[in-house]
Structure formats: structure tokens, C-alpha cells
């Protein structure tokens, strides 16, 4: 019996293998603005969709990152990837670390793009309840997106992103992943991990700042470093796609 696999988008046919995991509001489509700048001779990229999202929208599940890690490794096995690198945006930062813990030495390096650390976003119940309202309230989604990019971009763009997030994800999946990135903490499990890690943050991201990276990722991963992307908030793949693609590949090519 053939194992069911998550949906994905594959770009390139190069020898360096990279799998990217999107954020709470996103899908595999988030990475498309980078494609014209990617070195598809050097890299093979797979842009992954979680259960309940994008090309995996109709795939039921528990909507946890342990489940997502299992799905990633099943896909990697299907693709014949023994070793590969990971990119995670926002909640995808939590997701790639769950893959790392499940992968038993298969991960070359990791890149976090405005990436939530292993302690989660440390939301208290009041803030978590406010985020839960975004499951059914598209205006709340737009407000969160606007805030996360520094309230400096056209409101029509934030509204568009909110509508797209509602279109590409199921409400039960959107709600299901929330507590696992917002209020979980598995930092003790990654403490001292020697995997090379690069964190890319947006200069206008109000939440995932250099200080937060220093107190979390850099405290737990001895081979981690941070780079700030100018003129970007929480969505650099849309705000500065060529700069992000260049910075990512400069890092990944060191493997």
C-alpha cells in the first residue's frame, strides 16, 4: 500500500536538497516570489504544505508539528533524500526543529526566517484567546499581519494576505496548529544542538527581534547566528524576496 504524502511544490534539480515550511498564515505558495532568484542548478527546493493547508488542504490529521515532522520525513524518503537542509518561516521555525529532532542526523543546516523559537511565542491565555479569534475573523487576521510588518504597508496588502490565508487553510487546521507554536516549549530538547543555524529577521518585525533570537535560538544552538533584513517586517519573502533568496543561498551554500 502506497503511503499518502503531503502536497508540495518542487523547484530545481540541483544536488543540494532544501525543504521549506511556511508560517501560520501561509502555504507553499509563500515561497514563489523567491523562485526567480534561486539557483536551481545548485539546489532542489521543496516547498511543503502542512495537513489542512494548500495542496494538503483535504488531508485530515491531528495538526501537530510532530505529525508534520513525520510527514516531512515520509516525503524526504519518497524523494530519495538522505540528507537535506530546512527553512522555516514564523511557526515554521517550530516545525523545522521538530523535524530536526525526528530526523536522526539527516539535517545539514537550518535557516529560520522570522522564526518562532523552541519555547514557542510564550503567549499567555489572554493573548492566545485573542489569536484564536483570527480563526473565524478575517479582519483580525489582517490586523495581525499589519502589526507583524510594522503597520507600515498598504492595508490592501494585509487584507489580501488575510483572504489568502483563509482560502488556503482549513479553520480546524489553522486553529489546531496555534497552541503548538504559540504556547509550547521544547527548548530543553534542542539545548546544545550542534546543527548550524542562521536566523533571518526583519528590521520592522516587532516581535521576533534580535534580542529574542539572542535569548532563545542563540542560547540553545551553539552554531547559530542572526542576520537582519533591511526594509522587511515579518514577511520578507513578500517584502524583499530577492534579498532573502540571496541571503538564504549564501548561507545554504556553506554546507
Task: Please name the defining characteristics of this protein.
about 40% helix; Rossmann fold; 7 strands; alpha/beta; about 15% strand
Spatial arrangement of strands, main beta sheet = 1-3-2-4-5-6-7
Radius of gyration: 17 Å
Low-confidence residue ranges: none
Taken from the alpha-carbon principal axes, the silhouette is globular
| Strand composition percent | 15-25%
Structural class: alpha/beta
The proportion of residues forming helix, as a percent range, comes to 40-55%
Query: What is the CATH class name?
Result: Alpha Beta
CATH architecture designation: 3-Layer(aba) Sandwich
Order of helices and strands: EEEHEHEHHHHHEHHEHH
- The number of helical segments is 11
Largest sheet: 7 strands, mixed
Total discrete domains: 1
CATH homologous superfamily (4th level) name: Alpha/Beta hydrolase fold, catalytic domain
Structure summary:
This protein is an alpha/beta fold and 255 residues long. The chain is 40% helix and 16% strand.
Describe the protein's architecture and organization:
The chain is α/β, with parallel strands linked by helices and about 260 residues long. The protein has one domain: 3-Layer(aba) Sandwich (Rossmann fold). It contains eleven helices and seven strands. It has a seven-stranded mixed beta sheet with strand order 1-3-2-4-5-6-7, with helices on both faces. Strand 4 (about 85-90), helix 2 and strand 5 (about 105-115) form a beta-alpha-beta unit. Helix 1 (about 65-80) packs across helix 2 (about 90-105) and helix 4 crosses helix 5 (about 155-170). The chain is globular and about 45 Å long.
Amino acid at each position: 500500500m502506497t503511503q499518502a504524502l503531503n502536497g508540495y511544490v518542487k523547484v530545481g534539480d540541483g544536488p543540494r536538497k532544501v525543504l521549506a515550511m511556511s508560517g501560520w498564515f501561509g502555504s507553499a505558495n509563500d515561497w514563489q516570489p523567491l523562485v526567480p532568484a534561486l539557483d536551481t542548478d545548485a539546489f532542489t527546493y521543496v516547498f511543503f504544505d502542512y495537513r489542512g493547508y494548500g495542496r494538503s488542504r483535504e488531508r485530515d490529521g491531528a495538526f501537530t508539528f510532530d505529525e508534520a515532522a513525520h510527514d516531512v520525513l515520509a516525503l524526504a524518503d519518497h524523494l530519495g533524500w538522505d540528507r537535506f537542509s530546512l527553512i522555516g518561516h514564523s511557526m515554521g521555525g517550530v516545525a523545522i526543529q521538530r523535524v530536526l529532532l525526528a530526523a536522526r542526523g539527516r539535517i545539514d543546516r537550518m535557516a529560520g526566517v522570522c522564526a518562532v523559537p523552541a519555547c514557542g511565542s510564550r503567549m499567555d491565555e489572554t493573548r492566545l484567546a485573542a489569536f484564536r479569534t483570527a480563526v473565524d475573523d478575517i479582519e483580525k487576521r489582517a490586523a495581525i499581519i499589519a502589526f507583524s510588518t510594522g503597520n507600515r504597508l498598504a492595508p490592501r496588502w494585509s487584507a489580501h494576505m488575510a483572504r489568502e490565508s483563509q482560502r488556503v487553510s482549513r479553520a480546524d487546521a489553522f486553529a489546531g496548529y496555534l497552541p503548538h507554536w504559540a504556547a509550547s516549549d521544547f527548548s530543553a530538547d534542542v539545548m546544545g544542538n550542534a546543527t548550524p543555524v542562521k536566523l533571518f529577521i526583519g528590521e520592522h518585525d516587532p516581535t521576533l527581534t534580535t534580542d529574542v533570537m539572542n535569548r532563545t535560538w542563540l542560547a540553545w544552538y551553539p552554531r547559530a547566528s542572526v542576520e537582519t533584513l533591511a526594509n522587511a517586517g515579518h514577511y520578507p519573502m513578500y517584502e524583499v524576496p530577492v534579498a532573502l533568496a540571496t541571503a538564504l543561498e549564501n548561507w545554504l551554500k556553506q554546507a
